[in-house]
Each structure stands twice: as C-alpha cells, then as structure tokens.
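If you are new to this repository, start here. Below is one unmodified record pulled from the training split, so you can see the exact layout before writing a loader.
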Amino acid sequence: MTPLDATRSRMDGLGGSEATICLACGSRSVGLCAPLDATALGDMARATERIRLAPREPLFRQGEPARHVYTLTDGTARLTRVLPDGRQAAIGFRFPGDILGFTPGAEHAFGAETLTEATVCRLDRQRLDALFRRHPVLERRFLELCARELAATQDHVLALGRFTAEERCAAFLISLAEAQEKRGHVGPVFHLHATRADIGEFLGMTLETVSRTFSAFRKRGLIRLHGQSAVELVDRASLAALAAGEGEA
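And here is the target side for that same chain:
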C-alpha cells in the first residue's frame, strides 16, 4: 500500500465528522465550494475523496492521464514542468482553495507535488461534470477560479518579460502575502515553503540572483528573514512600489 492509499478516505455525505470537515474547511471561503448550499455541498462531499499527503509527495505527474481534478484544502504545493534536459522546474505555487489538475487535454501538461504536509479533495472528472449539470452555481464558480488563474498567469508572463530581478522578487513577495492574507493569515511574517531554487525557477532567475536580491532587500530594511522558511515584510509599501514597476524602493 502506498502512502497515498494509506491516507485516502471516501467522504460519505455531510453526516457526523464529515460535516465538520466540510464546513470548517480552510479553503471553504476561497475555494470551489464557497457558493454551495447544504444540498450542493452534500453532493460534492459524496463525490469527493480526501487525500492526505506528505511533504514533497507527487499529486500527479506530467504526462499522466488527467482523470481527476483536485482542490488543495490545506498546505502548499508547487506545479512542475520537466525541461528538455530532464530537470524538473517549478512553474507555479498553489495554496488552500486553489484547483489543480484541470486540463482540456487527456494528459497532464505539468506535474504537481506538495511542499508541505497537505490535504486535497480529489474529484473524478465525470463526477465533476455531473455536479456541474446539477448545480450550475458550481460550474460558474469553477470558471471564475480558472479565469483568475489565467489572469495571474498573464501577469506573471508580463513580469518575466519586462521586470527586473528586484521587481520580480518584490512582486513574488507581495503575491505571497496577499495569497496568505486571503486565507486568513495575519502578517507581517509570511511562510516561504518554497526553496530559493524553486523561487528562482518560477521567476526565471538563478538561485544566486534570488539570494542576492533577498539579501539586498534585507540590507535596505525592506524585509527581515526568519530562517529559511519565513519572511517579514518590513516596508511593504516600498515592495509594492517595486512590484508595480515604479522604480527603486
């Protein structure tokens, strides 16, 4: 039995402890289930599997059949792409409430793995389509989340093409703070579960450039580093100005 199999459990409606899990879910207010009433939420629960994953455990791999859609309900994950030389690069980060694994193709165009301990709700594509037919509000919410992700991807592509290293790092830190605040975290210290190498791959920079930029931010009093896993935004206004491409802080 794999770790995935050992931690998998079928959700049986909204009775007992499952009601508590669904209604108290950390992604309830920001994720796919946000607009659902009790009836729709019960249908979703009966169609869904909850899976608990260890850090750095694959959720799905590039090229595998895309039979399921996942909602990250707890923890942090990264999206990965296998490069022509065989290396695996980080191309995105996901937080509670985010959808993973949806693709119009038959296979996953990229992979996903956890950065921390995480919980996901896994939903078969055919069951998801049936839920869309029964609950149009669910389909509208799904399209809304996909549109937001597309807009964020377009902003990221623009940043890669036009922003300096400092502007990219500032934009990353601001987006990290906003993502965690949206999910109820109160700053100014935010968790950096990704490695400097992960961040560099995502921002189109080397590990050394990311480290130098963070060090420069620290020396200028913009941030304070707390070990390797957390960052404090000391001067958020200046970081936001950099992230907007408004020159040096």
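Two things worth knowing about this chain: The chain has two domains: 3-153, 164-243. The first helix runs from residue 3 to 6.
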